[in-house]
Amino acid sequence: MRPIYTWTMKFAGAFFALVVLLTSAAGSPNSPQNAQDLPSAPEAKQPRFPGAQPQPAPAQPKPSHPVSASPAPVAPLTTMPSGNNAPTQGLSAPEPPAQSGSSAAAPASVPMEATPQAKPQAAPPAEAETGDFRIGVEVDLVNLIFTATDKRGHFIKDLKQEDLRLLDEGKPPLRIQAFESETGLPLRVGLLIDASNSIRERFRFEQDSAVEFLHQVVRPKSDQAFVIGFDSVAELTQDYTDNADELAHGIRMLRPGGGTSLHDSIYTACEKLGKARVKSSARRAIILLSDGDDNQSRRSREEVIEAALRAEVIIYVIDTAVTESNNKGEKVLRRYADATGGRVFFPMGLQDVSTAFNQIQDELRSQYVLAYKPENFVQNGNYRSITLDVPKRPNVRIRVRKGYYAPKG
């Protein structure tokens, strides 16, 4: 029995040694040695499977994730919005590793490769900043809409920029940005009809003429107009629309009677025109039918003229006075038209009212646009005078506003 016992013990010892050898092989350096490398218990069992030996390959991307993750948070911390172009954001990521000095050698090679690219791209941002500055200066441009006629009142449509002499506060402009004969600008028109007792005799014919005017001048999808009737108060009978029938209805609603708040009504219309939203430049005009009498307004004539200039509104007037002894009202109406670059019409008969509307329509489609940068321009809200003439062509008469108010900075 002893030889059998001895052989059995030797066999058991050999088997135990084999188990130990296999166990040590399972714990080789390619297997996880630290519990921190095993995020969860199911993953900790993976090395026991036969396919666990090739797992060292996935272990290589893990070091790459921290390297790629470190530049990612850097981008939001850069100050690129100061005017640099978007492509330079890709160059901002290498800068923090260079300052920290704690990044690994492999990531440090990335900024060394990116740095030479940053130098050639420094010029475009400078150009962009220059362009932004130039565009910002364009805000200070002054836009003038003016009309040129001969001594007989016929429109002159062949003026050139070199024909003009412009003075702003007595000095030539720094530059002329744009000059052209503009007939397609959208119109924003406020039709103001005096509905006080003083115009009762001619009221119906003036209504008919105004309806015909709006049917001819308002272009759908381009122009818009509104209607205000006033006696002791101003009443908006039709808001902005390009529908001529709706505008006609707003005119027909008016009934004469009461006092006259001329200045307050014009002020209301100027505010409304100044707030008009347009996609591009537009001509803002008030067509006023009145005899110039005012006995109800709280605002003065000069306050209203300032409001008109700030809103860049041109005022055209059709004098509805019945008698020829309307000197006081005529002066008021002329002041409004002259200050804003408009015109006053004095119809002698009822048919002349329609003629005046037709002439206003022709003028609105026969104007020039001049944009310029004035010298010594300050956004202080002060009034600046303008003179515009054509010295080389003495037969040409210019009708333009006498000045403007600079915006407040």
Question: How would you sum up the global shape?
Answer: extended
Q: Name the helicity range.
A: 25-40%
Total E-strand runs: 13
Distance between the termini: 116 Å
Molecular structure report:
By secondary structure, the protein is an alpha/beta fold. Among the domains are: 141-182 and 370-405; 187-363, Rossmann fold (3-Layer(aba) Sandwich). It has 13 helices and 13 strands. β7, α11 and β8 (313-319) form a beta-alpha-beta unit. The radius of gyration is 41 Å and the shape is extended. The N and C termini lie far apart (116 Å). Residues 27-137 have low confidence and may be disordered.
Summarize the structure.
Helix content is 37%, strand content 20%.
Helix-strand blueprint:
Layout: H1 2-26, H2 41-44, H3 56-59, H4 61-69, H5 95-100, H6 105-118, H7 123-137, E1 142-149, E2 165-168, E3 175-182, E4 187-194, H8 203-217, E5 224-230, E6 234-241, H9 244-252, H10 262-274, E7 283-290, H11 301-310, E8 313-319, H12 327-340, E9 343-345, H13 350-364, E10 367-373, E11 383-389, E12 397-399, E13 403-405
Parallel strand pairs: 4-5, 4-7, 7-8, 8-9
Antiparallel strand pairs: 1-10, 1-12, 2-11, 3-10, 5-6, 11-13
Core attributes:
six-stranded mixed β-sheet; 13 helices; extended; alpha/beta; 409 residues; Rossmann fold; 20% strand
